[in-house]
Amino acid sequence: MESGMEDSVNAKIPNVINATVTMIVKVTHRNFTSDLKNTSSEAYKNFQNLFLSQMDKVYEGDDLPQYKEVIIRELLNGSIVVESDVILEANYTPEYQTLFRNLTKIVKNKIINVTRAQETDTSLCQNAKLCYNANFTTVDMETLKFSFNPVELCNQKAAADFGQYFYPEVVEGRLTCVNNCTRGTKSQLNCNLGQCQLLRSGPHCVCPNTDTHWYWGETCKSRTSKRLVYGLVGTMLAVLLVLVVLAVFLGWSQKKQHRAKYDPSQAWQREALPGTFKSTGVWEGQNLKEDNFGPEKGYSHFQPNLQPVDPNTELNFQRPKVVKSAAL
Hints:
Keywords: Membrane, Transmembrane, Transmembrane helix. The protein is an alpha+beta fold.
C-alpha cells in the first residue's frame, strides 16, 4: 500500500434500509385539469388523498409487511396518468438487495390485480373511487433503488484517487470496504512470495529479491537464478576478452607481414641488371642497424656492372640540325 493508505475500512451499516420502485397507473373516467399541476391546489390535494388511501389498501397486508407508503411524483394528462414511487422498508441483512427484488414482484402483482378489476358503475369511478386502465399499469423493476449503497459508501470512505479500487465484502461477519490487497478476502491478489501494494494505478505485486533468485511477473510467479545469470555474464565476458585478444594478435601479425614484404637489403642483393649499379654489401645486415658508413664507404660499395655490355656494339647518335628562323 502507498504511505498512509489502509487496506480495509469498516463500513457503517444502517439498521433499516429503504427501497424505492417506480409505479405508473392511468386513471379512467376523470379529466385532467390545470389545477392538478399545482400541488397546493384543492383539486390536487383531493386527488392525492383519494389515490394514496386506495394504494394503502392495495399494499397493506400480511403478505407485504415491508410496505411503507406511496409518494406521487407527477400527474400527467391522459385522462390522469399518475407517476409515483412505492417505498419499502426492511431491517438490514447481507442479502437485502435480493429481499427487496422479491418484494418488488409482490408490489407489481398487487397493483396489476387491482387495476384489472372492472367497475360497472362509472359514476363511482367519477366521484367516490378511482378506476384504472389495466393495459397501462407499469412497475419498472429496473428502477429499484436502495437508501444504502455499500459500493458508494466504500468509494467515499477510501482515500482520494483510491475509491474505485474499494468494494464491500463481509469479513469475519462484518461488512468491510476492502480491495484486492486486503488479506482474507475472496478476491485477494495472490502475489506468491511478493507483496501486494495498492497504488493509484491499482493493485500491484512487488516482487522480492533474494540472495539466490530474482522474482518477476504480474504475480511474482516467475523467477531467475542469480548464479545462472552471473555464470552467463562471466562466460560472455570471457568470450569477449578472447575475441579482443585475437583481434589484437591478428592486427599485429598482418602489420608484421606488411613490413616483411619490403626488405632494402634483399632489394639490393638481387641480380644486377645491365647498365645498373651492383650493391656489394653497404645495405646488408648489421650495416642497416649501425651508422658505420659514410659517403666514402657508400661509394666504395657501388660499382658499375658492365659485364653484360658488348663493347663491339656500334652507337649511333642523331646529328643535330640547325633551324633558322625566317627573316622578318
